[in-house]
Amino acid sequence: MGFEFWMFLSLVYVSHFHFHGLSLAEKAPYYSFVLEAAMAPEVSFYDYIIIGGGTAGCPLAATLSESANVLVLERGGSPYENPSKPDKGNFFPNLLDVSPSSYAQEFTSEDGVYNARARVLGGGSVINAGFYSRAEPEFLKQTGLNEALVNYSYQWVEKKIAFEPSMLQWQSALRDGLLEAGVLPNNGFTFDHIYGTKIGGTIFDGDDHRHTAADLLEYANPYRIKVYLHATVEKIIFETKVFSRTRAQGVVFEDELGKKHWALLTKDYKSEVILSAGALGSPQLLMLSGIGPSQQLKKFGIKVVMDQPLVGQGLVDNPLNFLLVPSPSPVELSLVSFVGITRFGSYIEACSGISFTPSWSRSVAKALAAILNQTEQSSTKLFQEGILNPESLLDTRIRGGIIFEKVKDPISSGYLELRNMNPHDNPKVTFNYFQAPEDLMKCVHGVKIAIDAVYSKSFSNFRYEILSAKALLELIVNLPLNQRPRHLTSAFSLEKFCMDTVMTIWHYHGGCRLGKVVDRDYKVLGVEALRIVDGSTFTSSPGTNPQATVMMLGRYMGLKILQERYFGKYRKK
């Protein structure tokens, strides 16, 4: 890093404290600059227009607003309207909410796997399981990011929203079970990515209240930023001239009443449109704007601005498979607090005492009762009531936990295509889960580790002795987890179990990959004044859970862009 950059960083601090002071007067949820899109003027001008107020968009906007005029266009609403809704106990109900105003927009991939994408200020940090863990060093080297600025940017995020979780009985027992299963060593509490078993960070505070990327807008200069909610961008506007590169000029967006607005860049040649709409939204919007595979664009009558066949390609979702383990002992409400990082490419995480919707609870309870009915001990007092009244086993909050396995760096990849020209609709997505046999072997090994942890001595107080490993597998096979067909041997073959019961962990990425669609500065290749800063640029999912790195990247690139604006092209080591 050059001397000029650190001088610039000191100026950013001065500007920040001039407007906020050390107490940061603008506190969520009282952001004066967050408005409904219907209140936007028909035409407006900004130095930076950020499409997507999500996990990357919020820290990016807050940083850029320290020295430039910024507009954020978020298609969803505010997480502050109902402050308790994003909290820990509502994790699954929020994901399963299919109402038009929900935080998550559901979709089903062409692979037959249910999925969701965020549509709320703060993005995925509003609906995820809250685990906070930094990327592995290899990821940072691969992306060419400067280590010193990366660490500074992580710390900027952590100061506001990251906490050390409480490790209560169920989580502690399972962590010890993983250590017994050989996921060593015990690394204690750390944000860093280290092989073995570790307690990571969380974005839930001691009162189980969620802190999100939207909270990072507390850092913003309130006089230089506007955030419009329920603002759906229809397309990016480009200027094309003979003998000149195509240049982004602004965007057209629609408010919640269906009225169109135009947000345009100022005449400063360093002004930019920045896509931060995520792994589905960013490639989808590029295509709707005329940048993508020309044959696909012509099919929908979209004017081709630039033929870029790699837009939408290299889309990857990390497969998830899990065990649901009923408990004879009370369990705490917990989301992911620790992780087992194996050396063969699998991550083991868990949650307990979570709430489902009543219909999901009934499905789980009935499947469990049916399995117990087949055992010789099904008439024991413990399960008599459950077999007669399956709903009583779980009510809406499970008495037990979910232990899941995530495949690291899957080789299998897919693609995204337009379904129609409506930006409100989800695109057509294919992930090709387990197309590569190496991915399947990682899953098999990971599920074996999870089973070993469940049947460890440390975890014995939280499992029923009459439930064998086969029974746990059979329970999952019988649940309506996806739309994929089941093999008769799914409960006997871990290969078939992985393929048949695969789910998402919502860490999908790619579609606008670094080096393919964007360069090392995250600028769209072949186009001026257009960048992409989000997970669509990733070639792999960073760390065990990507949110920490996505937020870091927003801060990191915000500083880099401002340095370039005021000091010229930034230098890299």
Terminal Cα separation, in Å?
7 Å
**Total of helices:** 15
Radius of gyration: 24 Å
Query: How many strand segments?
Result: 27
Low-confidence stretches: 17-28, 376-388, 390-394
Counted up, domains total 2
What is the CATH class of the largest domain?
Alpha Beta
State the CATH superfamily name of the largest domain.
FAD/NAD(P)-binding domain
The CATH architecture of the largest domain can be named as 3-Layer(bba) Sandwich
Described by strand count, sense and barrel closure, the largest sheet is:
7 strands, mixed
Alpha-beta content class:
alpha/beta
Percent helix, as a range, is 25-40%
Overall geometric form? globular
CATH topology description of the largest domain: FAD/NAD(P)-binding domain
Strand order in the largest sheet: 8-9-20-21-22-19-25
Can you give the mean pLDDT?
91
Tell me the β content.
15-25%
Disulfide bonds: 443-498
Signal peptide: 1-25
Domain Glucose-methanol-choline oxidoreductase N-terminal: 278-292
Protein name: Protein HOTHEAD
